[in-house]
Amino acid sequence: MQQRGEMMDLRAIQSALSQAKLDGWLFYDHHHRDPIAYRVLKLGSPVCTRRWFYLIPAEGEPTKLVHRIEPKNLDALPGKELQYSSWREQRERLKEMLGGKTKIAMQYSQLNDIPYIGLVDAGTVELVRSLGAEVVSSANLVQLFEARWSAEALALHLEAGKIVHAAVDTAFKTIRDAVRARGSIGEHEIQQEILRFLEQRGVESEDPPIVAVNENSANPHYSPTPQSSRQIGKGDFVLLDFFGKRRVTGAVYFDITWTGYVGESVPDRYTKIFEIVRDARDVGISLVQQAFREGRPLRGHQVDDAVREVISGRGYGEHFIHRTGHSIGEDVHGNGANIDNFETRDDRTIIPRTCFSIEPGIYLPEFGVRSEVDVFVEERDARVTGDVQRAVVPILSL
To answer: What span, in angstroms and rounded, lies between the C-alpha atoms of 398 and 282?
Structure first.
């Protein structure tokens, strides 16, 4: 992942296209439907009420196609410029751009296997195919040029991680103090306190943190509101899913989930489920580390299979209702390989300098347990970038 303000790396893109035996990468947008295009091309955010196309060939000069109403939309990019006004002229110019190209990458995913990549509408894919080009998925290219982190991005991630972990500690201690002082505290009250904590320390997020008690923790995407907020008191189980990134250009997310029990010791029923989730999580981490240390290719779906097998083997497979993990980038759900063979089949190879979560969960009617860590992959190793929870936190004994 390059820092904003840098120029598109045309030479690297063309090298990747040649290695993949592709004739080109065709970018297209209308009304800002494809944020990947703007990130890879380092384009900024021009007004986009008319369609534009940008073709990077494996060799030679790129070509732009813009509407005469918005002729400057691609001025920041190198290459020959074509313009159009009518739809007939647009198709003529697009045919000219694609002349001699037989295999083109676009933000397309066959059968929508990877919806994060499938951003080009079906009609536009049909149009390109009608002009004689085979359209293939740009998923692997996107991972190369949008999901890899720079050293600066990793440093910002680690900075955010220290603050997010401090927020978890603060939340547990706030629950402890409130329960001791007045018997309970609301989920929403904790959530808002943590939002302030993060904002004061320069960490921002797309969505508020998750604070969930008892049966609410069995809803993976539960988020308390003033109306839905439940009280947290002695004998309750609590799940905290906190995430955020530094409030600076180019920052990437840190995303973790921890669980605690409002008591001095944790009952066996919570410990049992946590330990299954913990063991499954650790199998996933070990698989990634071993594969990279040995130089073996590893795909996202393979890690999901290994983690899911642990939970299924312990009799709770039907209660693990989401993928094992997601790519992490400037958005909390990034555009690298996901750890998924459940919601989708992510067949992409995990590559160095990318990061993803490993977060198995078991969700029962009374409570849900999830344990989430972030894993950063290096050239010949992988590491968890934050603290790793080994047991349910006994909140009143802190």
So the answer is: 25
**In contact, 342 and 113? CB cutoff 8 Å:** no
Please count the other Cβ atoms lying within 10 Å of the Cβ belonging to residue 24: 26
128 and 191, same domain (yes or no)? no
Asked if the structure places residue 354 within a domain, the reply is yes
Give the tens place of pLDDT for each residue, 236-274: 999 999 999 999 999 999 999 999 999 999 999 999 999
Residues of the domain holding 117: 10-146
pTM of the prediction? 0.92
Q: How many domains does the chain have?
A: 2
Rg of the chain (C-alpha set): 23
Counting Cβ atoms within 10 Å, is residue 227 exposed (0-12), middle (13-18) or buried (19+)?
A: exposed
Q: Are 316 and 276 in contact (CB under 8 A)?
A: yes
Q: Of 146, 163, 197, which residue constitutes the final position of a domain?
A: 146
pLDDT category of residue 7 using cuts at 50, 70 and 90:
confident
Domain boundary among 113, 131, 146: 146
Q: Supply the mean pLDDT for the chain.
A: 96
